[in-house]
Amino acid sequence: MDKLKDDEWVSKIIKGLELAYAKMLEFKKQKKSDLVIMKDGKVVRIPMG
User: Which among 2, 20, 35, 41 could disulfide-bond with 46, CB atoms 3.0 to 4.6 Å apart, if both were Cys?
Assistant: First the structure.
């Protein structure tokens, strides 16, 4: 693949990941469940509701 197609492909993947993340946050808020992330090598729970 050439550079332009690679950039378009990467851009589409990033947009899809951003959309999925936004939907996940909305779901977590609706269900009032914790968001679990890794920060500085430790598992951290963030209350969403």
Answer: 35
